[in-house]
C-alpha cells in the first residue's frame, strides 16, 4: 500500500472516530458501555458471520469466473480479490478504487490483464444488476415508511436508484449494442479533451473503447454458458442478502426481538444506496446520519441506537479495510495464464 493510501486509511479511521464521538454527544459513556456488555453475543457473532460469508461468496464468484479460463487460480488468491476491494473501496471517493485494486491483485497472480479486466467487468455487471433488483424489492416494502417519516431522505433514495439503474442500462448497452455505445461514448468523452493533453486524451479514449470491447466479448462468452451465468447471479444475490441482514442481527443482539426482518433489511438496502451518493470515502457522515435517521423509530434508546450504528460501521466498513490491508501482505500464488487456460464449457 502506497504512502498516500496509508495516509487516507488513517484519515478515514480518524474521521470515523470523530463521527462516533459526535454521535455520542448526548449519550453517557457509562450507559453505552453497559449496553455493550448487555449484548446477546450469539446474534452479534451471527452478524459478524454475515460479513465473512459475504466476502467468502465474492471470493467463490471470482474463483468460478477465473477458473473457467485459468485452471490453476487458487482460492487463496480469489479471496484476496474481495478483501483488497474492500480496502480500496473504503479509502476512495464513490468506491472508485475497488476495481483497480482487484485488477492489481489478479495481475500479481499472473492472470492476463485483459482476461482479469473482463472478469471484473462481468462481476461488476452482475453485482450492479442484483443491487437494482434488491433495491426495487426494498422500495416496495420500505419506501412508504421512508417517505412518511423522512421525506427528505426519500429523494436521496430515488436519486440513488436512478443512478444505479442508468449504470445497468449503460452496461447492458455495451453488452448487446456495442457499436452504438462506442459512438455515444466517443461523443460524451469529447469534453475531456478540454482538460487533458491530446496524447493523454487519445490514450484514455483507446483504453475506454478497449474496455467496451472486452466487456462485449466476455458477455458473449459467458452468454454461451447459461449455467455459469445463473450460478454467478444466484451467488451474488445470496452474497448481498447476507450483507443486508447485518443490521437485523445487530438489533437482535441489542434485544429488539420483535424487529421485522423484511423492513429492517429493506431500510439497510436504502441506506447502502444513499451512501453511494456521498463523495467522501465510505460515505462517512452520510452513512451514520442515514442509519440513525432510518432506525431511530425502531431503536428507541438513544444509547442503543448509537451502539447499533457503531457496530454496523465496524462490521460493514472498518472490518473490510483492516482485512484488506492484511490481504495486501499475503504473497500471491503464481499462475501461468498462457499455459493454464481452460476451454469454455459449451
From TrEMBL:
It comes from Lentilactobacillus raoultii. It is a multi-pass membrane protein. Catalyzes the transfer of a lysyl group from L-lysyl-tRNA(Lys) to membrane-bound phosphatidylglycerol (PG), which produces lysylphosphatidylglycerol (LPG), a major component of the bacterial membrane with a positive net charge. LPG synthesis contributes to bacterial virulence as it is involved in the resistance mechanism against cationic antimicrobial peptides (CAMP) produces by the host's immune system (defensins, cathelicidins) and by the competing microorganisms. It is found in: Cell membrane. This is Phosphatidylglycerol lysyltransferase. The chain crosses the membrane at residues 7-24, 44-66, 124-146, 152-177, 228-255, 261-284, 305-330. Keywords: Antibiotic resistance, Cell membrane, Lipid metabolism, Membrane, Transferase, Transmembrane, Transmembrane helix. Pfam families: LPG_synthase_TM. Belongs to the LPG synthase family. The lineage of its organism: Bacteria, Bacillati, Bacillota, Bacilli, Lactobacillales. InterPro entries: L-PG_synthase/AglD (IPR022791). Its main location: membrane. It catalyses: L-lysyl-tRNA(Lys) + a 1,2-diacyl-sn-glycero-3-phospho-(1'-sn-glycerol) = a 1,2-diacyl-sn-glycero-3-phospho-1'-(3'-O-L-lysyl)-sn-glycerol + tRNA(Lys). Its EC number is 2.3.2.3.
